[in-house]
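Below is one such record:
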Amino acid sequence: MNELGPKKFPNINFCSNPRNIVGLLCPHAGYMYSGMVAASGFFKLAQDGLPTTVIILGPNHTGYGPAISLMRKGIWQTPLGNVEIDTELADVILSKTDIIDVDETAHKFEHSIEVQLPFLQYLYGNKFKFVPICFLLQDYNSAVKVGNILIDAIDTRNAIVIASSDMTHYEPALQAEKKDYTALDAITALDAYRFYETVKTQNITVCGCAPITALLTYAKGLNAKAKLLNYHNSGDTSGNYSSVVGYASLLFKK
């Protein structure tokens, strides 16, 4: 089994590093369960260049707000300080679609996006802005539309896209792993349709199905390649493998 996480602090030096990473898939459970897996992705970011903006796509667990919600201005506060929303890029995204609504209520009690911020703040301090997009709607066509919108909106901007998602929920560890690796095979192939159909036909309880589908669409449009960095489950922390949640970290690179 691979290590739970990098097991060391990254050497952060962006001065001479070109930017090659276009996206990450990271889990969003409590840090004691999934933080180590998420750290595998952010450890790789520390070896890449400094992005100006991070677009974070997350599922809506609460049911508040419209189908797809973007917060276009303001700051989010974590124990590491404030992170400013990139209003200029948010407005460019909004100008290219009518399926994303401006809404704050969807983000008010939602954790899937906010848990990514302290990792980014550890790496970048206050040198980056972000755009949060929350998906209550999890259909394939809408997710692909968002992915294509991001290709157009980001264009030559210095930005990365993070999809926040956990994998299978509350199944025995071996069963969860078998299901998850079927979905992960489609992700590493950058096959958004196969991923989406695999999740639906095999009843894989991936909570961020639409954010992942949007990221896959975006990454494929940039001719990126995907690599699985780490996969574990909650049982590796709790010791209970009878009912676990799966966590995966993947890198998308030019």
About this structure: The longest helix spans residues 173-188.
